[in-house]
What we know:
The chain is an alpha+beta fold.
Amino acid sequence: MYEQLLRSKGLKSTPQRLMALKAIQEGGHIDIDQLHDSFNRLGMKIPLATLYRILGELSSVGILHTVTLSGQKTRYEIAKGDHPHFLCEQCGQLEDLHVAMDEIATIAQNACVHSTRSVSVMLHGICQNCSSIPDKTRESEG
Length: 142
Ligand SMILES: [Zn+2]
Ligand SMILES: [Zn+2]
């Protein structure tokens, strides 16, 4: 599936690129360290610098989407159109919210003369997992 996508974007489908895409798809939203760990777990040694380069290439052709978080590492996800995110302030988990964004873009468009290219919405709070843990001293995973 990703072989074709890579080729349609003019990129060769290398094992490293395919592995990166697979790991990101499975992880949902992962940062470069988590991605590096996935490579290590599978015995694929890859220098961080190479991984940065791959992520840069995949992002620049639009296969990957980056989510910028203040004070945290950039997360990468498979691009699938604008969607809002929920960030858990406790465990750092990033979740997709299935809410239509078109309306926000339209409202913004009508409110100003700027032309909107993309919409990025981030909601902050405590996820269900974290709010169900009564003991705050317990270590959270990830
Ligand atoms: Zn959480
Ligand atoms: Zn997302």
